[in-house]
Specification:
Length: about 325
């Protein structure tokens, strides 16, 4: 039986009971390995990603200005030309035909002036163009937190431990679309079999076993954990190294910030957080990450047209 409460700003939240699960996957991408036994305490979670309507209410009350709406501070980005310091966000643009999939610059473009307000009229869609700071500010305002990676994955599985998707192992059971993903040839041809090319209204597709919507597909979601290159790093203990192996699997909080930087780009010293869930741009031919176990890094100062978030409240 689902338990529900109304949060401090009048929205519904769903109780996720405490439990154990196998975090990660051995069958897909290297950063999801190894599979680790994890236990999490119970917590409350938003049933769907924060919408444009939700975020507009927050901005109206607080006057908050998102990262994408602010010009960059030159001192924080040495070497950047003045023209590159303008406010804006990364926007996906479909290509005219097949391109090199090793170069995301073929479809991602920084657009001056792009921010969440461009999508605000689509009130029931997830808010996008939000950086980590924006998501965290919203969570603080309504008395919540961003989920840890372990909490997020546990909730996304909906009680189906080890299943590929939140609903089971069949991507389209009985031919039914269960999430908003890219179907066709990425990044140029989307068949729209699921009904959408861009984001979809939250709660368009069936919920998982915990009553949560859009846990995969639609938009990637911020978590509070720093990025680590393996799933072993993702279950770093909450309070530092401990002696007993079992202790480091309970309510893990990810690795340290110092390990989150991209070693292939030592000149870029912007830490990265973990994103979960995949988005409407994920496709089997390029990014089969619309799965609970999937995880990617994202620099905390970066906003895009396919990243959103949802919040949690922890007991105690």
């Amino acid at each position: 039986m689902l338990r529900r409460i109304i949060d401090p700003v009048g929205d519904e939240m769903i109780w996720i009971p405490e439990g154990e699960f196998h975090m990660g996957s051995e069958r897909f991408y290297p950063e999801e390995r190894p599979v680790v036994d994890v236990r999490v305490d119970g917590f409350w979670m938003d049933p769907a990603p924060v919408t444009n309507r939700d975020f507009a209410r927050f901005v109206e009350v607080t006057g908050y200005v998102t990262v994408a709406e602010r010009d960059l501070v030159a001192e924080d980005y040495p070497g950047l030309d003045e023209a590159d310091l303008a406010a804006g966000s990364l926007v996906f643009t479909a290509t005219r035909g097949p391109v090199d999939l090793e170069n995301p610059g073929n479809w991602w473009h920084f657009v001056r002036g792009a921010n969440w307000r461009e999508e605000a009229a689509r009130q029931d869609h997830p808010v996008v163009h939000v950086a980590y700071e924006d998501a965290s500010a919203y969570a603080d305002w309504c008395g919540k937190s961003l989920p840890t990676e372990a909490e997020w994955e546990y909730a996304a599985r909906g009680g189906l431990d080890g299943a590929t998707y939140p609903w089971g192992n069949d991507f389209c059971p009985d031919g039914k679309a269960m999430a908003n993903t890219w179907e066709g040839d990425f990044p140029w041809r989307n068949t729209e079999r699921d009904g959408y090319t861009r984001t979809s209204p939250v709660e368009t597709y069936p919920p998982n076993g915990y009553g949560l919507f859009d846990m995969v597909g639609n938009v990637w979601e911020w978590t509070q954990d720093w990025w680590s290159t393996s799933n072993e790093g993702a279950v770093f203990p909450c309070c530092g190294p401990v002696g007993q192996e079992t202790a480091r699997r309970v309510n893990p909080r990810g690795g340290p910030e110092r390990d989150s930087f991209d070693p292939s780009q030592p000149e870029i010293r912007i830490p990265r957080k973990v994103l979960k869930g995949g988005s409407h741009l994920c496709a089997p031919s390029y990014c089969l990450r619309y799965r609970p176990a999937a995880r990617i890094p994202q620099m905390i100062d970066t906003a895009t047209s396919h990243i959103g978030f949802r919040c949690v409240v922890r007991d105690g």
